Protein backbone atom coordinates (compact mmCIF):
# COMPACT_ATOMS: atom_id res chain seq x y z
CA UNK A 1 0.00 0.00 0.00
CA UNK A 2 1.38 3.45 -0.87
CA UNK A 3 1.74 6.02 1.88
CA UNK A 4 -0.99 8.61 1.26
CA UNK A 5 -0.27 12.20 2.23
CA UNK A 6 -3.22 14.56 2.39
CA UNK A 7 -2.87 18.30 1.85
CA UNK A 8 -5.40 20.54 3.52
CA UNK A 9 -5.82 24.18 2.55
CA UNK A 10 -7.85 26.86 4.26
CA UNK A 11 -9.91 29.02 1.93
CA UNK A 12 -11.88 31.91 3.42
CA UNK A 13 -14.85 33.29 1.51
CA UNK A 14 -16.02 36.77 2.42
CA UNK A 15 -18.11 39.63 1.04
CA UNK A 16 -16.68 42.97 -0.03
CA UNK A 17 -18.23 44.65 3.04
CA UNK A 18 -15.98 42.49 5.25
CA UNK A 19 -12.72 43.93 3.87
CA UNK A 20 -10.87 46.20 6.28
CA UNK A 21 -9.84 49.75 5.42
CA UNK A 22 -6.37 48.91 4.07
CA UNK A 23 -7.81 46.05 1.99
CA UNK A 24 -10.40 48.43 0.55
CA UNK A 25 -7.63 50.81 -0.51
CA UNK A 26 -5.79 47.86 -2.05
CA UNK A 27 -8.96 46.85 -3.89
CA UNK A 28 -9.40 50.35 -5.30
CA UNK A 29 -5.76 50.36 -6.46
CA UNK A 30 -6.10 46.92 -8.09
CA UNK A 31 -9.28 47.92 -9.92
CA UNK A 32 -7.63 51.09 -11.23
CA UNK A 33 -4.70 48.99 -12.41
CA UNK A 34 -7.14 46.70 -14.27
CA UNK A 35 -8.44 49.78 -16.08
CA UNK A 36 -4.89 50.51 -17.33
CA UNK A 37 -4.10 46.95 -18.46
CA UNK A 38 -3.02 46.30 -22.05
CA UNK A 39 -5.14 43.34 -23.14
CA UNK A 40 -6.37 43.93 -26.71
CA UNK A 41 -6.21 40.20 -27.54
CA UNK A 42 -8.02 38.57 -24.63
CA UNK A 43 -10.01 41.62 -23.47
CA UNK A 44 -9.53 40.17 -19.99
CA UNK A 45 -8.14 43.04 -17.94
CA UNK A 46 -6.37 41.93 -14.79
CA UNK A 47 -5.34 44.41 -12.09
CA UNK A 48 -3.25 43.63 -9.04
CA UNK A 49 -2.17 45.63 -6.00
CA UNK A 50 0.54 44.58 -3.56
CA UNK A 51 0.83 45.89 -0.03
CA UNK A 52 4.48 45.98 0.98
CA UNK A 53 5.69 45.84 4.57
CA UNK A 54 6.96 49.44 4.22
CA UNK A 55 3.35 50.49 3.60
CA UNK A 56 3.83 51.12 -0.12
CA UNK A 57 1.28 49.90 -2.64
CA UNK A 58 2.64 48.59 -5.94
CA UNK A 59 0.24 47.88 -8.78
CA UNK A 60 0.51 45.82 -11.94
CA UNK A 61 -1.67 44.69 -14.82
CA UNK A 62 -1.47 42.23 -17.67
CA UNK A 63 0.60 43.30 -20.67
CA UNK A 64 -0.19 41.42 -23.86
CA UNK A 65 1.65 41.21 -27.17
CA UNK A 66 0.69 40.12 -30.70
CA UNK A 67 3.29 37.36 -30.21
CA UNK A 68 1.05 35.92 -27.49
CA UNK A 69 3.60 34.20 -25.19
CA UNK A 70 5.59 37.44 -24.98
CA UNK A 71 2.92 39.00 -22.76
CA UNK A 72 2.92 38.85 -18.98
CA UNK A 73 0.28 38.39 -16.29
CA UNK A 74 -0.63 41.19 -13.90
CA UNK A 75 0.62 39.33 -10.83
CA UNK A 76 4.13 38.80 -12.19
CA UNK A 77 4.28 42.33 -13.60
CA UNK A 78 3.62 43.63 -10.07
CA UNK A 79 5.78 41.12 -8.20
CA UNK A 80 8.81 41.66 -10.43
CA UNK A 81 8.42 45.43 -10.29
CA UNK A 82 8.16 45.35 -6.49
CA UNK A 83 11.32 43.23 -6.28
CA UNK A 84 13.15 45.55 -8.68
CA UNK A 85 12.15 48.69 -6.77
CA UNK A 86 12.31 47.44 -3.16
CA UNK A 87 14.53 44.34 -3.30
CA UNK A 88 14.60 43.89 0.49
CA UNK A 89 10.98 44.67 1.27
CA UNK A 90 8.51 41.89 2.06
CA UNK A 91 5.12 41.65 0.39
CA UNK A 92 2.29 41.29 2.89
CA UNK A 93 -0.79 41.09 0.66
CA UNK A 94 -1.72 40.69 -2.99
CA UNK A 95 -5.16 41.73 -4.24
CA UNK A 96 -6.20 40.32 -7.65
CA UNK A 97 -9.08 41.70 -9.72
CA UNK A 98 -10.18 41.41 -13.35
CA UNK A 99 -12.62 42.94 -15.77
CA UNK A 100 -14.13 40.30 -18.02
CA UNK A 101 -14.71 40.58 -21.77
CA UNK A 102 -18.07 42.24 -20.99
CA UNK A 103 -16.22 45.07 -19.20
CA UNK A 104 -17.52 44.14 -15.74
CA UNK A 105 -15.46 42.97 -12.79
CA UNK A 106 -15.79 39.20 -12.60
CA UNK A 107 -18.49 37.83 -10.29
CA UNK A 108 -16.21 34.92 -9.34
CA UNK A 109 -12.84 35.46 -7.65
CA UNK A 110 -9.82 35.70 -9.98
CA UNK A 111 -7.52 32.76 -9.32
CA UNK A 112 -3.89 33.22 -10.40
CA UNK A 113 -2.31 31.03 -13.08
CA UNK A 114 0.32 28.40 -12.28
CA UNK A 115 3.32 30.51 -13.30
CA UNK A 116 2.19 33.38 -11.08
CA UNK A 117 1.70 30.96 -8.19
CA UNK A 118 5.27 29.77 -8.67
CA UNK A 119 6.59 33.35 -8.53
CA UNK A 120 4.45 34.15 -5.47
CA UNK A 121 5.81 31.06 -3.77
CA UNK A 122 9.45 32.01 -4.39
CA UNK A 123 8.72 35.51 -3.10
CA UNK A 124 7.27 33.96 0.05
CA UNK A 125 10.21 31.60 0.52
CA UNK A 126 12.70 34.44 0.03
CA UNK A 127 11.04 36.71 2.55
CA UNK A 128 10.22 33.90 5.03
CA UNK A 129 6.82 35.48 5.54
CA UNK A 130 3.48 34.37 4.16
CA UNK A 131 1.70 36.42 1.53
CA UNK A 132 -2.02 36.93 2.03
CA UNK A 133 -3.69 36.37 -1.34
CA UNK A 134 -7.05 38.07 -1.89
CA UNK A 135 -8.90 37.01 -5.03
CA UNK A 136 -11.64 39.44 -5.82
CA UNK A 137 -15.03 38.76 -7.35
CA UNK A 138 -18.13 40.93 -7.14
CA UNK A 139 -20.18 38.02 -5.76
CA UNK A 140 -17.51 36.59 -3.47
CA UNK A 141 -13.94 37.19 -2.31
CA UNK A 142 -11.60 34.30 -1.63
CA UNK A 143 -8.69 34.67 0.78
CA UNK A 144 -5.74 32.32 1.16
CA UNK A 145 -3.09 32.94 3.83
CA UNK A 146 -0.09 31.54 1.98
CA UNK A 147 1.14 30.94 -1.58
CA UNK A 148 2.00 27.40 -0.42
CA UNK A 149 -1.71 26.67 -0.29
CA UNK A 150 -2.03 27.58 -3.96
CA UNK A 151 0.79 25.37 -5.13
CA UNK A 152 1.26 22.12 -3.27
CA UNK A 153 4.16 19.90 -4.34
CA UNK A 154 5.81 22.89 -6.01
CA UNK A 155 9.21 22.95 -7.67
CA UNK A 156 11.77 24.49 -5.31
CA UNK A 157 14.77 22.18 -5.67
CA UNK A 158 17.06 24.94 -6.90
CA UNK A 159 15.96 27.55 -4.34
CA UNK A 160 19.17 28.79 -2.62
CA UNK A 161 19.62 27.24 0.82
CA UNK A 162 20.76 29.67 3.53
N1 LIG B 1 -3.81 36.75 -16.76
C1 LIG B 1 -3.30 37.42 -15.70
O1 LIG B 1 -2.90 38.59 -15.81
N2 LIG B 1 -3.21 36.77 -14.52
C2 LIG B 1 -3.57 35.47 -14.32
O2 LIG B 1 -3.36 34.93 -13.24
C3 LIG B 1 -4.23 34.73 -15.39
C4 LIG B 1 -4.30 35.38 -16.70
C5 LIG B 1 -3.90 37.43 -18.05
C6 LIG B 1 -2.97 36.87 -19.10
C7 LIG B 1 -3.67 37.31 -20.36
O3 LIG B 1 -3.28 38.64 -20.65
C8 LIG B 1 -5.14 37.31 -19.98
O4 LIG B 1 -5.19 37.34 -18.56
C9 LIG B 1 -5.93 36.11 -20.49
O5 LIG B 1 -5.32 34.93 -20.11
Detailed description of the structure:
The protein has 162 residues and is an alpha+beta fold. A hairpin with a 5-residue loop joins β5 and β6 (141-144). The protein has one domain: Cytidine Deaminase, domain 2 (3-Layer(aba) Sandwich), CATH 3.40.140.10. The chain has three helices and six strands. The mean pLDDT is 97. A six-stranded mixed β-sheet has the order 1-6-5-4-2-3, sandwiched between helices. It starts with 11 loop residues before the first strand and ends in an 18-residue tail after the last strand. The relative contact order is 0.18. Bound molecules: tetrahydrodeoxyuridine (THU). Tetrahydrodeoxyuridine (THU) binds at residues 39, 42, 44, 46, 62, 64, 71, 73-75, 112-113, 116. Tetrahydrodeoxyuridine binds next to α2.
Amino acid sequence: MPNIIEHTIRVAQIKESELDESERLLLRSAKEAADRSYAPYSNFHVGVALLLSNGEIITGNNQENCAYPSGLCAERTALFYAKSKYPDCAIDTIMITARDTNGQFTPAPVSPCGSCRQVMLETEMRQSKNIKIIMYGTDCITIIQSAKDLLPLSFNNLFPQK
